[in-house]
Design goal:
14 strands, alpha+beta, about 325 residues, two-stranded antiparallel ribbon
Length: about 325
């Protein structure tokens, strides 16, 4: 493997800037892990614990980044229930501006060199026929483990914010923000919704430092007993007037009560007041994962794009 170059907050801002330019030009080509908000969320929650296994390269034209690759190499994940998961392969997040599509071959060559000897996975955009052709030419094929009825591939959903209905919560529940509820409540809400999880107070501090985070757009639903029953973070891309929900979760003891839908509607109304005209949210797209998809469709979202998981085995 090559010497690692850590992914810094400065790198993240450059990557987000490219995400904004690709969104403005060809939103259907934004990779699912390379959007403005997804970048901030992944870097924020992970750089303290996993940053030593990350490395990156950026390509520039006229002083602006036009392509980047972020390789995530083998590491160990420790969850809050005491379990441990060893990640033995490599994963690439990446983005290439469509006006510089030819750089994708350089990104792939860099990844192959960085992760030589490892199984390598990547998420390409299913709508990007040129990119799929280039990945195939470099020996990448569809990842069978990520496909199928219970696969891990994701779809991006979108809606406009011209007509967002008034949210309704059950009696005794109320909306809060992370600014109001505080860090401990925000972390607990995530852990309850996603257990077992590697999320920690340190990870949340990283999220708060990520470019684009706003505590007033980090929403929670508080139950009558004080439990934070649902939570989400909205990432506002002011350049494109788009709000991205990531993540969205509900406490297992409070599901099927309409809390997440009400929280999404409340969030969209806040985003509209902050200047957004459009909202996005990603979810698992395989048939065996209908719950989140039904939630988002019920809140007015519709499928926009999906990713294409690819793999190249070591050898």
């Amino acid at each position: 493997m090559t010497n690692l170059e850590p992914v810094t907050a400065t790198d993240l801002r450059l990557m987000q800037g490219l995400a904004q330019r690709v969104t403005a030009a060809r939103p259907d080509l934004v990779n699912s892990d390379a959007s403005f908000g997804e970048l901030a969320w992944n870097w924020g929650k992970g750089h303290a614990a996993d940053g030593a296994s990350w490395t990156r390269r950026l390509w520039f034209s006229g002083g602006d980044p036009v392509a980047w690759g972020w390789a995530q190499l083998p590491h160990r994940v420790r969850r809050n229930d005491g379990s441990v998961k060893d990640v033995t392969g490599a994963y690439l997040a990446h983005q290439v501006h469509p006006d510089h599509a030819g750089l994708l071959d350089e990104v792939i060559d860099w990844y192959d060199g960085t992760a030589a000897g490892l199984d390598r996975t990547v998420l390409a955009c299913a709508a990007d026929e040129f990119a799929l052709t280039r990945w195939s030419a470099h020996g990448y094929g569809t990842d069978p483990a990520a496909l199928g009825d219970t696969g891990s591939w994701t779809q991006l959903n979108e809606r406009d914010l011209t007509d967002v209905e008034q949210p309704v919560l059950p009696d005794g529940f109320r909306f809060r923000t992370a600014d109001q509820a505080g860090p401990q409540a925000a972390v607990r809400a995530h852990l309850d919704a996603w257990a077992p999880s590697a999320y920690t107070a340190e990870a949340y501090e990283g999220v708060r430092k990520a470019p684009g985070y706003r505590g007033d757009l980090h929403l929670l639903v508080e139950a009558p007993d004080g439990t934070m029953a649902a939570s989400t973070i909205m990432w506002l891309d002011e350049a494109n007037r788009t709000a991205e929900f990531e993540p969205v979760g509900t406490h297992p003891g409070h599901r099927r009560r309409g809390l997440a839908r009400a929280m999404l509607l409340h969030g969209m109304r806040l985003a509209r007041a902050a200047g957004a005209t459009h909202a996005t949210v990603a979810c698992l797209g395989a048939p065996g994962h209908p719950q989140a998809r039904a939630l988002y469709y019920g809140a007015g979202f519709r499928k926009f794009t999906r990713d294409a998981p690819l793999i190249k085995t070591a050898g």
